[in-house]
Amino acid sequence: MFLNTALLSYRPTSNLEIAFGRDQLPTGINIPDLAVFVRSRNRVGYYDSPTQIKAFWWGKRYFVSPYAFGPGGSEQHGDDEFGGGSLAEFDLLGKQRTIVGLNFLRGSSRNGERNLVAPYARIGFGSWGILAEHDFTNRTSNLGLFPSFHQSATYGQFFYYPREWLVASLIGERLRVDAPFKQQRNAGKLEISARLASQLTIGLSARLQRDPLSGGTDKTVAFSLALKSVF
After folding, report:
1. Domain for residue 197, yes or no?
2. Residue 25 covered by a domain
3. What is the pLDDT of residues 57-81, one digit of tens each?
4. What is the CATH number of the domain that holds 95?
5. Cα separation values, 27 from 9, 88, 92, 116, 219, Å
6. What pLDDT is stored for residue 75 in this prediction?
7. Total structural domains in the chain?
8. How many other C-beta atoms can be found within 10 angstroms of the C-beta atom of residue 72?
9. Do the domain assignments include residue 62?
10. Cα separation of 193 and 50, whole Å?
């Protein structure tokens, strides 16, 4: 039996909450898309959920979330990472429409270390909005297996709601990894999702991904169906 995500939360004041358990590490845009951008920051697989304790402190125009984390239990020997970081954001114009923030993280294991800095933005006015984040990561080996190298990943999404139940999104992603693990990916996706009822949502997406190093191209068309019940 394996429990992948679970959190216990306590709110001592009206603007402070503390949570402990297993969950994904905080991100500025908090997207469910498991494509190039999300996979680039993970260490174990497509869904990393380390053990962590984190706090959420907010006011009218600010939000701060410091966190500390440890192994989730599914890491290989030597990759059991410990670390911490913080996410901090500010509402430029008020009314939660123009959010800019910064996420930074430091993790260390027996095999290696990583440092991440990620500025991000969430902008929305009426029926449209933009989500954007750029991650810059430095990775080093504590065993001397490879030299220190840099990695950058960029995510951008423009979304539009022509109706309250219908949303269209145009997404772009870019990944660059330096030698000795040199890798490049450019991807674009068009996605349409419709909430036909409170318990039923359908989606259709078309994705194009290109590897500039090899010249290879991947094309994907996906249909999704989400059903939920309320007990």
Report:
1. yes
2. yes
3. 999 999 999 999 998 877 788 888 9
4. 2.40.160.10
5. 19, 10, 19, 11, 27
6. 78
7. 1
8. 19
9. yes
10. 30
